[in-house]
Amino acid sequence: MTVTEMKPEHVIQVAGLEKICFSDPWSEKSVASELENPLACWLVALDGTLVTGYVGSQTVMGETDMMNIAVHPDFRRRGIAEALVYALMDCLKARGSRCLTLEVRASNETAQRLYEKLGFSLVGRRPNYYFHPREDALILRKEWEI
């Protein structure tokens, strides 16, 4: 597995993973638009040419929000999400970001355990943040020195 910046040839697979993994997926057009967004950093995990996972973020004034992260169900529990988050943090540090914030479903204990392992801390809650089903989001944050 390799982790690299998302390129135009990855967009269709990333959008396909959105549909598999999320009840409110980003469209192919929305994913593609991130390639032109100077605030964005999107990375993909590849098994050959197959996108097995991805992570996307946007940075404003040295603070980054993780927009999306997903791993194909057939490739979960192999360390791909962890590798993607570490690679994202390395990329963000190189770009001068000082922190990474994300939202996670209150019921997604598997993801919460991963983020805790990676040093994220609970900083808040967004009531009714998610739809389909409606659910609160926990706000997690990790800061670092640059």
Brief description of this entry?
The chain is α+β, with helices and mostly antiparallel strands. 28% of the residues lie in helices and 40% in strands. The longest helix is centred in the middle third of the chain and has 15 residues, at 80-94.
Descriptive report:
With 146 residues, the protein is an alpha+beta fold. The protein is 28% helix and 40% strand. It is built from four helices and seven strands. It has helices at residues 11-21, 28-33, 80-94, 109-117; strands at residues 2-5, 40-47, 50-60, 63-71, 99-105, 121-130, 135-143. It has a seven-stranded mixed β-sheet with strand order 1-2-3-4-5-7-6. Strand 6 (121-130) and strand 7 (135-143) form a beta hairpin. It is globular. It starts with a strand and ends with a strand. The model has no long low-confidence stretch (mean pLDDT 97).
